[in-house]
Specification:
The protein is an all-alpha fold and 169 residues long. It is built from five helices and no strands. The termini are far apart.
């Protein structure tokens, strides 16, 4: 039998691994962006937010008597590496990465929605509050990406049409 607290702890570990994956993906993307300064600046800001989110999650996990999962964290980092390598081969890397970022932010929003409910169910108000704080940052990033996808697309199309400009990153 798995208790609600056991599930909460497992999902917190998943969220920590997800944030490790996010940090790896965001860092790879930021390092490769050369011609999209607004996007790069927002990604760098979100890297800092993501690192803070990881710290909050570790606090929640430890408060429940658990520890992070090395295996899950490693799997997340490996997936991020694969995504970064795959992006290098695309001629429209910046557009695809921005789209993937928007999708990933919405996955995070869904994960924190589940975590808030689970934490409330077991009476863990500190974890619920931490997840409410994190979800606001994820919502803000998703909204920013959604709002700026047209701008990134326009900039890419303009650079792509210019034979003297590199567009992909």
């Amino acid at each position: 039998m798995t208790t609600p607290t056991d599930n909460l702890l497992d999902w917190l570990r998943d969220a920590h691994a997800m944030e490790q994956q996010a940090e790896s993906m965001l860092k790879a993307q930021a390092e490769r962006l050369e011609h999209y300064p607004t996007l790069k600046a927002r990604i760098v800001k979100h890297i800092e937010e993501t690192q803070g989110q990881q710290r909050l999650l570790v606090e929640c996990i430890e408060r429940l008597g658990g520890s992070t999962s090395t295996l899950k964290d490693l799997a997340g980092k490996l997936m991020a590496f694969g995504q970064a390598v795959g992006g290098m081969a695309m001629t429209d890397e910046v557009v695809k990465s921005a789209m993937a970022g928007y999708v990933f932010e919405n996955l995070e929003i869904a994960s924190y929605t589940v975590l808030i409910e689970a934490a409330e169910r077991v009476g863990d108000t500190a974890t619920a509050q931490a997840c409410r704080s994190i979800i606001q940052e994820e919502i803000a990033m998703a909204e920013w990406l959604k709002e700026h996808l047209p701008e990134v697309t326009r900039a890419f199309l303009e650079r792509s049409a210019d034979p003297d400009a590199e567009a992909k990153r």
